[in-house]
Amino acid sequence: MDKFVIEGGTPLHGTIPVSGSKNSALPALAAALLTADTVVLDRIPRVRDIRTMERLLVDIGSEIDAGENSERVILNTKKIVSPEAPYELVKTMRASSLVLGPLVARAGRARVSLPGGCAIGARPINFHLAGLEHLGAKISQEHGYIEAEAANGLKGAQVVFDRITVTGTEDILMAAVLAEGETVIENAAREPEVVDLAHLLRKMGAQIEGEGTSVIRVQGVSSLHGATHEIIADRIEAGTFVIAGAITGAELCITGCLPEHLTALIAKLAEAGATITQTNDTTLRVERRDGPLKPADMITEEYPGFPTDLQAQYMALMTQADGISIVTETIFENRFMHAQELMRMGANIRLDGRQAIIAGRSRLTGAGVIASDLRASASLVLAALVAKGETVIDRVYHIDRGYEKIEEKLSAAGAKITRAE
Ligand code: EPU
Fold first, then answer.
1. What is the mean pLDDT of residues 196-209?
2. Ligand 1 centre and the CA of 7: distance in Å?
3. Domain end residue (candidates: 190, 213, 230)
4. Greater confidence, 115 or 118?
5. What is the pLDDT of residues 327-364, one digit of tens each?
6. From the CB of 247, is ligand 1 less than 6 Å away?
7. Cα 299 to Cα 64: distance, rounded to the nearest angstrom
8. Residues forming beta bridges with residue 87, ordered by sequence position
9. Is residue 253 among the annotated active site residues?
10. Whether 148 contacts 110, CB under 8 Å
11. 53-64 confidence digits (pLDDT tens)
12. Residue 40 is part of which domain span?
C-alpha cells in the first residue's frame, strides 16, 4: 500500500491545474449505457473510481477505449450483456448504484448489490429505489442484491425526494429520459454535477428542463443517440487547492476551474481572512497572506451551500485560525474521521455529535496518520503542508480514488511530498 511522505513548512507558489470532475464523470459514464451509439467523454480524470466504473461498464457490456493517461474515454454499448453491479465493485465504490437507473431504462431490468456500510455514514439508496418504483419498476431484494424490473418500460411520474440526494437525482434523471411521458423530479439536487449530466443527456437527445433548480421536468423519448461531451472542472479538487493556498499563506493560482461553483467556499475563506481573487473565467488566485487566519464557523449544506466534500479540508484550515470555530456536518452522520488524525498532529478538536469545535491556532507537528476516506485524506495532506517535520500518510489509495496525481500537482507548486510503497 502506498504512503505519502510530506515535509511540512515549505512555502507553496505557482500554479496548480484542476482536472475534470470525478463526481460529474461517474454519472456521465453511466449515462453512456442509455444508448447503443458511441458516447465520447472528454476531461475524464484518471482516478481510481473512474477505473472502477469503467470495469463495471465493461462487465455490463460496454466497449471502452480509454488510454491510461488520456482524458478522452470512448464508450459503446451495443448490447447490455449483464445488467448487474456485483458486490465486489459496489463495496469499493458506492457510486456504482448510478448504473441502476440507466439499466432499468435501457434493458428493463437491473441487479445491483446493496452498498452496505461506509466510512462516512450509512448511505442507503432507498430514495433511488422509491423513485424507480414511482416510475413503475418492481423492486425486490434478495441475497444482498436489489432487483429492479420494468419489462414493459418505465412510465413518467412525479418523484418527490424526501431529502436531497445527488446520485439519487442523477439515477432517476437517467431513468426518466427513456420513460414514457413526463417525469417531474421534485426536491432535486442542484449540484453542478447534476446540471452537467443534464447537459450530456440533452446532447444525446433527451428532453429536460429545470436542471440546477429543485424541480426537473423530463419528457421521455423512445431512444437516445451518441454525443461528445466535456466534463466540468472538479470543484472539490479546486477547493482543496484553494485551501492549500490559504493554509500556507502562499500566493497560488488555481487554473482550469469554475469559480462560480466555489462561491460558498470563497465567501467563507474571506470571513476567515484569506483573499481569493478571480483573475479570469477559469482562474482563482489565493493572495499571499502574512497575518493570522480568523476563526469562522461553517455548516455543510447541499449546493449552493458549503460542500460536505470540503468539510475535512476546512477543518484542517481552522486548526490554523486564531480562536474557536465550530464546524457542523449536516449531510453525513459520521464524517469526522479526520479529526482524530488531526489531533494526533497536535490539533485541538472536540467532537460533539455533528459538531466539531476547533480551538486554534495549533502548532501542528508531523506524525504517522491514516487516511480513512477520500476527503479526510485531503485534509491530512493540507495539515501536513504546515506541520513541523515529516508526516507519513498511510492508505493513500483513498486519495487516489478521487484526486488525480495530487502529489505531482503539489510538488510542482513547491510542496515536499513523495509517494512511497
Ligand atoms: N441518503 C439516503 N437515502 C438515499 C440517498 C441518500 O438516506 O437513497 C442520504 C445519505 O445517506 C446522506 C444524504 O442523503 O446522508 C445525502 O446523500 P447523497 O445521496 O446526496 O450522496 P451521494 O449521492 O451518495 C454524492 C457524492 C459524494 C458527496 C455527496 C453529497 C458522487 C459520486 N458522490 O454522494 O461525494 O459527498 O453527494 O454532496 O457524486 C466524495 O466525492 O468524496 C463524495 C463522498
1. 98
2. 33
3. 230
4. 115
5. 999 999 889 999 999 999 999 999 999 999 999 999 99
6. no
7. 40
8. none
9. no
10. yes
11. 999 999 999 999
12. 22-230
